[in-house]
């Protein structure tokens, strides 16, 4: 069966293709969304468990309806469709997101890094902060395998090397801050807005256990530091040195991903984030 045929069978009628990511492909019947795994990386079990916990805390997020395994062995999930109206977030909407992240960060958790795909507890796959970071970020120097001089970020912007080298101890220390259950990937498609307010926070498949500065840095990368400060304030988080240091780790990660995924457009954004973070330190 094709992916579309699987989706039609699960939803019991015609479906529309919504999109495809690194880990899954999605279809909708206008009320529900079915996601089908595309190889390794999909974590539908823990994703649904996080959303159930957030719904109980009053956070807007799509209700998980069904999950299981297709006849071909691939995981799938069926969720309520999160609707949006095309509006842009206002200050109140960003504050909504801050309160949603505060609820996410408060969920009980243990260990580090990407979450194990289990519905009962939120446990990272790694026993140490460094291993946890490596489970989620690709070659984020000094935690990756590449020498700084050979890193794609430094090859793209050689002037960054000396400042990064000076900050090595700070980068190694920032990951040892108190942990939270973090979203880690707060780009625009993970957020749904209606009337400028947050209608839904989506997709916890990359959720990881690490310092909450991780989410502040993710917001800065995708939405800018002004938005990051608004959201962090509503979440009760600082938007200072730790966020800038974590932003450097994200810049290194996205530069590496730009190369391995063959997406050169990511590199200028990674370089810009690195320069902005260094300017804040």
From TrEMBL:
Matches recorded under Pfam families: APH
Gene3D superfamilies (UniProt xref): 3.90.1200.10
SUPFAM superfamilies: Protein kinase-like (PK-like)
Segments forming domain Aminoglycoside phosphotransferase: 30-234
Regions crossing the membrane: none
InterPro entries, sorted: Aminoglycoside_PTrfase, Kinase-like_dom_sf
Name of the protein described by the UniProt record: Aminoglycoside phosphotransferase domain-containing protein
């Amino acid at each position: 069966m094709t992916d579309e045929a699987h989706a039609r069978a699960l939803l019991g009628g015609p479906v529309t293709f919504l999109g495809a990511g690194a880990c899954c492909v999605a279809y909708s019947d206008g009320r529900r969304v079915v996601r089908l795994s595309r190889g390794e990386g999909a974590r539908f079990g823990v994703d649904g468990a996080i959303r159930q916990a957030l719904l109980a805390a009053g956070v807007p997020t799509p209700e998980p309806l069904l999950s299981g395994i297709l006849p071909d062995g691939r995981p799938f999930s069926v969720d309520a469709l999160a609707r949006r109206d095309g509006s842009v977030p206002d200050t109140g909407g960003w504050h909504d997101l801050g309160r949603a992240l505060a609820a996410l960060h408060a969920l009980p958790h243990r260990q580090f890094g990407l979450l194990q795909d289990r519905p009962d507890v939120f446990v990272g796959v790694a026993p140490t902060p460094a291993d946890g970071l490596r489970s989620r970020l690709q070659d984020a120097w000094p935690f990756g395998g590449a020498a700084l001089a050979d890193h794609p970020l430094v090859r793209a912007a050689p002037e960054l090397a000396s400042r990064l080298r000076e900050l090595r101890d700070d980068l190694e220390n920032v990951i040892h801050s108190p942990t939270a259950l973090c979203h880690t990937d707060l780009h625009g498609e993970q957020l749904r807005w209606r009337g400028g307010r947050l209608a839904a926070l989506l997709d916890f498949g990359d959720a990881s256990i690490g310092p909450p500065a991780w989410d502040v840095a993710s917001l800065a990368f995708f939405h800018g530091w002004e938005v990051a400060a608004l959201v962090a304030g509503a979440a009760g988080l600082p938007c200072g040195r730790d966020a800038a240091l974590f932003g450097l780790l994200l810049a290194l990660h996205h530069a590496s991903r730009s190369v391995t995924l063959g997406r050169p457009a990511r590199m200028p954004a990674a370089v810009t984030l690195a320069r902005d973070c260094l300017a804040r330190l």
